[in-house]
Amino acid sequence: MEKLVIEGGRPLTGTIRIHGAKNAALPIMAASIMAEGTVKIQNVPNLSDIHVMLDILRALGCEAGHTGDTVTVNTTGVHEFHIPESLMSQMRSSIFLMGPLLSRLGRVELYQPGGCAIGERKIDLHLQGLAAMGAVIEETGNKVVCTAEELRGAEIMLDYPSVGATENIMMAAVMAKGMTTITGAAREPEIQDLQNFLNTMGAKIIGAGTDTITIEGVSELTPCTYRIIPDRIVAGTLMIATAVTRGNVTLEQISPAHLTSAIHVLKRAGVQITIHGDIMNVCALARPKSIERIVTSPYPSFPTDLQSQIMVLFSLADGLSVVKETVFEGRFRHVDELSRMGADIRVDLNSAFIRGVPRLYGATVEATDLRAGAALVIAGLAAQGTTVIEQIHHIDRGYEQIERMLGRLGAAIQRTSPVKTE
Ligand code: UD1
């Protein structure tokens, strides 16, 4: 198993371009099968989750490849509606194929993605939305079969603004008969990106980015070329890494508007942030200040996907901070690992009470999920001594060659492979 080895204590300095957003690319790749022909998606990062989505598209009959930052999908041969359990288990985002496959083939067979390291992660809202549009859903064990001779527009109210459910319902509604309205929709920028992509192919969607999305069904979509948005979570991770190493980093090709809550929190912690168009400079000269309380919740609030990382900043701040997690119930598994590095964190239900310490110390730790892994990398960059991070395949799901990205900013970080023995 590969590991990351970090010699901590070097401030991050320099300029770096932020890669495209995984969470925008995955639903957009899934949505591409609704148009017959060749779709090109640009600014797609080279990540293991993207490779799994390419494998799934191929299993459905597409020709799909990734060259440079462009994914090309020829969807002409799509004929298969069964998503193999082996691929489904590798990536929860396989459920994004539900709406598109129902729309294109009238049937989809897949498996419940099940729980994961950060929580239970049900798909009931996806299924309720599809059922409201006329899909018949049969669940046997963990297998889910959805069929629909015809999808019909519907008024769908989401009890919780689930990102994935909003996207799946949007995709199913694009070629449904009549109008669909989603109220209580999630407002994440990746949903706006999906709307823009689908509209470029001829869909008629308005409202993404607000809590009400309206979709007027169209009879067909036309393939297009589309460039996806920058990854706000990668940008946020680098902003926090810069802050804890007291560095000075310029991030290029970002969307500052998507980072409003992270910018607000970092400024309150004493970090200097200046923005010019799509360029942001982050500079930290002093120890971070503690913040009484931050709460993760759906966009535009502070994102759960930066919760683990911001906890590292508070671990090194000058007082007590509280972080409350409201999106995923099990998202504190990084706490034990950070504690091994000297952090002082107590968890009570879904709140973490973090008393800042003057320094963290290198240790051997394990990435338990994608963002927990990113948090450990940040902790390792700030820590005194050597940190070894295991189970880094989690990190490779969301950060393109993280060691190269940070190495360019002056970090002493290396990926090591195990020595092969006969
Ligand atoms: C997406 C992001 C993920 C991010 C999350 C929240 C992608 C590929 N992933 O995940 O990085 O952490 O948004 O910002 O875009 N829920 C239900 N029933 C459902 C669906 C969700 O109860 O049918 C619950 C989940 O268990 C969770 C909460 O709603 O507690 C949020 O989930 P959701 O917004 O759906 O997240 P994802 O789309 O899975």
TrEMBL record:
Binding-site residues, UDP-N-acetyl-alpha-D-glucosamine: R92, D305, V327
Gene Ontology terms for molecular function: UDP-N-acetylglucosamine 1-carboxyvinyltransferase activity
Sequence positions bearing 2-(S-cysteinyl)pyruvic acid O-phosphothioketal: C116
Catalytic activity line of the entry: phosphoenolpyruvate + UDP-N-acetyl-alpha-D-glucosamine = UDP-N-acetyl-3-O-(1-carboxyvinyl)-alpha-D-glucosamine + phosphate
A Pfam family reported for this protein in Swiss-Prot or TrEMBL: EPSP_synthase
Pathway linked to the protein: Cell wall biogenesis; peptidoglycan biosynthesis
Binding site for phosphoenolpyruvate: K22, N23
Catalytic class of the enzyme: transferase
Enolpyruvate transferase domain location: 7-405
EC number: 2.5.1.7
Protein task: Cell wall formation. Adds enolpyruvyl to UDP-N-acetylglucosamine.
NCBIfam families to which the protein is assigned, alphabetical: murA, PRK09369.1
Family: Belongs to the EPSP synthase family. MurA subfamily.
Name listed for the protein in its UniProt record: UDP-N-acetylglucosamine 1-carboxyvinyltransferase
Species per Swiss-Prot/TrEMBL record: Paenibacillus allorhizosphaerae
